[in-house]
Sequence to fold (318 residues):
Amino acid sequence: MILLMAAGGGTTPPPADPRPVIADPLVMQMRPTGRSLRTIRIARDGSGEFTTFKAAIAAGTATQNAAVAAAGLARPTPNFWITYLVGPGVYQPGPEFGSGEIHPFAAFYALDPTKGATRVEWGMEPTGGFYWEGIDVTCVDNGGAFDPKYAFHLHALATIVLTRCSFTNAAPAAGGYPMPIGMDGDTGCTLVCHDVDFTTGPRLSNHGLIGGTGPLAGMTIVYSQCRYPTGSLYFSTLNDSDLTEMWVVGGSADACSLVGDKATLHLDPATVLARTTGSYAGHTKLDGSAATGTTDARTDWPVPTGGLSAADRAYYGM
Fold:
């Protein structure tokens, strides 16, 4: 007994975190910390568990579905994360990947933190909660097909964080071309784009709840340290009574635009905008006239912790 205690009681230390350390405290704060059911390695050179995104995501989906069913739940919670560690290189899933649907509570990390070292050339459809770090995405042509529409077509469910990556739409036949990303929003959800490059199109195609009427809680939209030289950091509430808050903090863009009369725009004066008027610029109602909602210079955007916004942490009891 004495020898065991002297040797540390025979306990096994927890495994080291395989995710690369990033010298950005906001990134480190936003990374998911909930229970991860499985860690899956994707590597083009064969050193991982899978060489393709399709096979890896199929395996992650099966693991998550089985665990959710065993727990007697209807859908996943933040206790059912699947972690994907992605080796460097260019991944080209191709038409067999379909629209690239990704299950909720999926977290992807580039193992090589060098920007530009890891890229996917296909469009994907993630569902929140969702965390994506260090992997560039380019939507490429799918034989002239409508889908994939964008590099990312996001579906709000829980917190979505995109960081340290770029998005490009290089598929002229795609339904959302040339916009790099689009989002179907929902009330109470959060989208954070932090240290992201958008490279194509006149604006983003992010919007709130389709068909929503009357006063809605709205969304929290954050564009932090983003760069978009050709377009507008854009969000449309689709409802002039929606109470969305949009934050544009630092970075640079051709313009920024919040559409929704009662929404609030927090625009950091340090953000470099090529223009503040014209198409896809400023804070307007749905009809294009000036909004009556608040526009201010606040920069204290609500940083998610452990992959979840404060609202989601409360909702899931985390």
